[in-house]
Design goal:
By secondary structure, this protein is of the alpha/beta class. The chain folds into two domains: 160 residues, D-Maltodextrin-Binding Protein, domain 2, CATH 3.40.190; 137 residues, D-Maltodextrin-Binding Protein, domain 2 (3-Layer(aba) Sandwich). 42% of the residues are buried. The protein contains 15 helices and nine strands.
């Protein structure tokens, strides 16, 4: 992943041993999976991505260490975030990277900070710092039971510029600083583990603010008319990719789909189904008018966003999961 802004370059980039980039032909107007006999399945769900490490290679090369992943990679179009795909490729082949990976991908996962408007009378919270301010905005908080995003949020709320967050987390002092900031609200946190929990916690009044997947919050707002509002300040966003493994049995058809899926009209059209933003800037202007303000990629919502560094978490997840769980147990 190569930046913190949606990309608008050619619809896909073929990453191979020679790192050759090729422009795509025009996308098809529609795509029929059944007719083209393609299989597209996730390598792992977004919230599991950074939590799991890849098995280490065995000294005995006759013992395969990656069977679950290899089976999934036999599909024509596994989906995952870019960090997982590239890390997995490196683990399996020692090269980075022998996949064809789209760089203009189809959606993000977001950790915004929604709140129940009924929880606060008078001035409402508007910033990430407000999430950590129990005095000004009392009430329970909801956070996912994992270090990912929580450590980044804690540092940003404590004044660390977003571009320095991961460099800060590289140090012992940085991790300690993040946990110290989380200590300021720890006694008031209700920890959640499934994406359906945050909107329910808000609706039941168990928390006044929580982290959440923005698509879940939008569904609660639009379909259940819940009085929720999202604090976009400091949103964490992640990117999923379509990947065509080397040796895929239907590579040509898979690439036809990639061209279709990463076209601006198609990216924009998906916004009528769920509030996940397109990652091409040319698609943003095509988003349905009634959905634009719900998009994490809307310019106003995206102003202070931080991209989750999946490759960084791939290297540090084991250590920080252990550290975070020890902190939770105190």
């Amino acid at each position: 992943m190569d930046g913190s802004k949606p990309d608008d370059r050619a619809g896909w980039v073929a990453l191979s041993k020679d790192n050759e980039a090729k422009p795509p032909p025009p996308p098809a107007a529609s795509f029929d999976f059944e007719k083209n006999a393609l299989r597209a399945e996730p390598l792992t769900t977004g919230h599991q991505r950074a939590d799991r490490r890849f098995p280490k290679k065995s000294e005995d090369s006759s013992k395969p260490q990656h069977i679950p992943f290899i089976r999934q990679l036999r599909h024509d179009l596994p989906t995952a975030d870019c960090g997982l795909v590239c890390n997995l490729c490196k683990e399996l082949s020692g090269e980075r990277c022998t996949f064809s990976v789209t760089k203009c991908v189809t959606r993000d996962q977001i950790w915004p900070g929604p709140y129940n408007t009924n929880a606060f009378k008078g001035q409402a919270p508007t910033t990430l710092a407000d999430f950590f301010d129990l005095k000004k905005y009392p009430g329970k908080r909801g956070l996912r039971k994992a270090p990912q995003a929580n450590l980044e949020w804690a540092l940003m709320a404590d004044g660390v510029p977003r571009e320095k967050v991961y460099a800060t987390l590289e140090t012992e002092e940085g991790v300690a600083r993040a946990l110290a900031k989380l200590d300021t609200i720890k006694s008031q946190v209700i920890w959640w583990e499934a994406g359906a929990q945050p909107p329910q916690l808000l609706a039941d009044g168990q928390v006044s603010m929580t982290s959440a997947w923005n698509g879940r919050i939008w569904a609660a707002q639009a379909k259940e008319k819940q009085p929720f509002k999202i604090i976009w300040d400091g949103q964490m966003y992640d990117i999923d990719v379509w990947a065509v493994p080397v040796g895929a049995p239907n590579k040509a058809k898979a690439m036809d789909f990639v061209r279709f899926a990463t076209s601006s009209p198609v990216m924009a059209d998906q916004s009528q189904y769920i509030a996940y933003g397109p990652t091409r800037t040319s698609a943003q202007s095509l988003v349905h008018a009634d959905m634009k303000t719900h998009m994490p990629t809307d310019p106003q919502n995206f102003a202070s966003a931080l991209q989750v560094n999946s490759e960084w978490w791939g290297d540090h997840a084991d250590e920080l999961n252990e550290r975070f769980n020890a902190w939770l147990a105190k």
